[in-house]
Amino acid sequence: xxxxxGFDRLGACVLIIGAALLLAAPAAAQSDGRGAxxxxxxxxxxxxxxxxxxxxxxxxxxxxxxxxxxxxxTAEEAAARQQDRVAARDRQDNNPARTGDTGTxxxxxxxxxxxxxxxxxxxDPPNGRVPPLTPAAQRRFDELAAARxxxxxxxxxxxxxxxxxxxRGLFVRCLMGFNSGPPMKPQSYNQNLQxxxxxDHVVLLNEMVHSSRVVPLGDHPELANGIQQWLGSSRGRWxxxxxxxxxxxxxxxxFDPDRAGGGHRPGGxxxxxxxxxxxxxxxxxxYEFTMTDPAWxxxxxxxxxxxxxxxxxxxxxxxxxxxxxxxxxxxxALREAQxxxxxx
Length: 344
Fold this sequence. Notes:
This protein has 5 helices and 12 strands. The protein is of the alpha+beta class. It has one domain (9-22, 47-91, 106-342). Strands 1, 2, 3, 4, 5, 6, 7, 10, 11 and 12 form a 10-stranded antiparallel sheet that branches.
């Protein structure tokens, strides 16, 4: 979280690796003679995407039905949306029922999201909404919901201490973030990405959980051993001034950007994720991602947002220092399982 500066060991190691990659390549430089509207360039000629980028946003993933196929709000609608958000935060901070409640963060811990005019992050389909699930995917969700009736959000599914930690289990246990994905989705705090570049690699380092992807550029084969990974296997290429990163080979449990509050879903091993990064201006990086998973979604879908250049460094994401909550969650769930087994 942002309350305490500094880096943990993993974050420091990743940054050292990134720095070493940069030292091994010519220093990045912006072309002194570039004309208006041209992207800044590295010394070796690629568009320069390096730096820290803030992807916070007050835009919802799915568009409210009242806006139909409209991509942007009017100024009045944007002001009303921001006013509603301020009022909601005020209710969160001043709810008498939550006096002494340490289970939820108040406004001190969360970012103030940047205001935008987009009606939704989803830009395709034209209605701005994630397509329906396939019947098979819906059945998996329904079965999981039935298995978790009466189970707390952060507790494992009964009998699932190894196989099923629950939809929030990976980020509650600090194994993955709830906004870093991939794909990245604005939410709550630590919404920053740092980009490093060399002529043949790009490093994408997320502030949350300090997850990093070292992306080779050009013609690189997929992993021969077929080992599936939490963050998948990424390969990059340039299409004009746009960096295109295609990620496959995910584990069966993947980040679900459509889940309110963050979380992960089963059935992700067939996902193909395409991310596009374009330097739209000196202070703006356009980020677009397309999710293609025929076993899960009835159609591919695309979301787009604008990242803002930040002058701040990445901060430490310290998730479990002095955390007794997780121990109690697991101990309580194990005790419930033992009592349930004894009653049979």
